[in-house]
């Protein structure tokens, strides 16, 4: 039996930061944008609720850019309707990418908000059925209609109909041009135009001319938006430092010359020849000539400081629908990274894909085992229920290991940010050590803890800080031998807190403590299915993501984390009065 659990997999992960929120936002609209299929309605409703929550974390401008990316093809009428009720900029970008059938357009257009229907008039590829629905609803282009001559006559006409005859009023501006005074006028400060009067047709035309000149002057002085870039001619230029540019989208003509790019990048890259910019120009020229995709093409850009340097180009050819004629490329420029970082990112991506494939059968086994154990399809003997419960527990254990592997891969490649907050690491460590001491007592093992009574606030959420502390303390406690004791010390120095744990004998003998395969000696405390070395490596990745470090110093592991500004200092250990400094 085959089933698609991609949506459930995405919803299972929590977006801890803005970068993770953008990634999950893309994943959800990619999955929801496919053709509507049978599935769990509650799961789809949860996906839309997650999109709303992610929208509060991502600015409107960034969401508009994400929805407007060239790779999307929204084929789900439900998602198109949901986007149509969003911010106008987002709705315009989504409707530009929507690809629905004629029947779907007929059904969805009347359900769209009135302001959203107008965006469809800018598309020239809608089916005739959709055009007829728009015409029936009275949706037209937003361009202003050309004024009729009678409109001008009414605007110049006198406010009081008794002050002049109607025939004379209509004839004055057109049939009697002689009264127009074309002599040079004295230069005077510009004043607000006065409403025309009926005393003279000349005054009415002069007022109309003033209004036209004022409109043109205001139009020429306004600041153009990002969709109409031009050179700054006498205007104030923003001298604030630009943000570093990691990637940008582009489009090219049939010769491989860039003719479109994101608004803020367009002036810097317009006209660049992809073949000449590529490191291997012959390969790029051959690919463009044969209309082949450009995959991981190394290129070097010169010019503005923001685009200077090495890049990697990924682009796909574009063809017209009617004739199949090639008319250019559309793709993305991304900053080139070192070979080691590139290989590490590729390996992490392959690992995440493998874990996604492995989760599917494990989830299925866990679901079937729970059905049998809970007797949801009928009575089951107790022996089989016990076996099913064991299988469900093992599946949960395996899924927990998959989550740890995925977390480590994302942390080491910078794809995951820890949730920020304000947690007291000292209080967390004291609480967890007190919880573990009774578990170690039957083996006559113990922690000699010297954690003080002060606070150590760090920039992590309570959950993230508890997870990091427990991973360290439980891993060390699980490798303690009978009768063994290790010391724990915590102190602050400058602007950071240091948490030192003496290594047990089983870990102290290892050459690399982050790669040992030592497992817990008791079932009550577990370092995970991959052993103590993996758990410590994951703790080190979490510490680095929080701006700190976990390192082995002699026979101890030392965790260093930055303190929040204004944190209270911990009491100095006895005999070292000057070792702690609070801020």
From TrEMBL:
Domain Signal transduction histidine kinase dimerisation/phosphoacceptor: start-end pairs: 346-414
Coiled-coil ranges (or none): none
EC number: 2.7.13.3
Keyword Glycosyltransferase carried by entry: no
UniProt keyword annotation of Kinase present: yes
InterPro entries noted in UniProt: HisK_dim/P_dom, HisK_dim/P_sf
SUPFAM superfamilies, A to Z: Homodimeric domain of signal transducing histidine kinase
Gene3D superfamilies according to UniProt: 1.10.287.130
Catalytic activity reported: ATP + protein L-histidine = ADP + protein N-phospho-L-histidine
Keywords attached to this entry: Kinase, Transferase
Domain of life: Bacteria
GO molecular function: kinase activity
Designated name of the protein: histidine kinase
Source species: Qipengyuania psychrotolerans
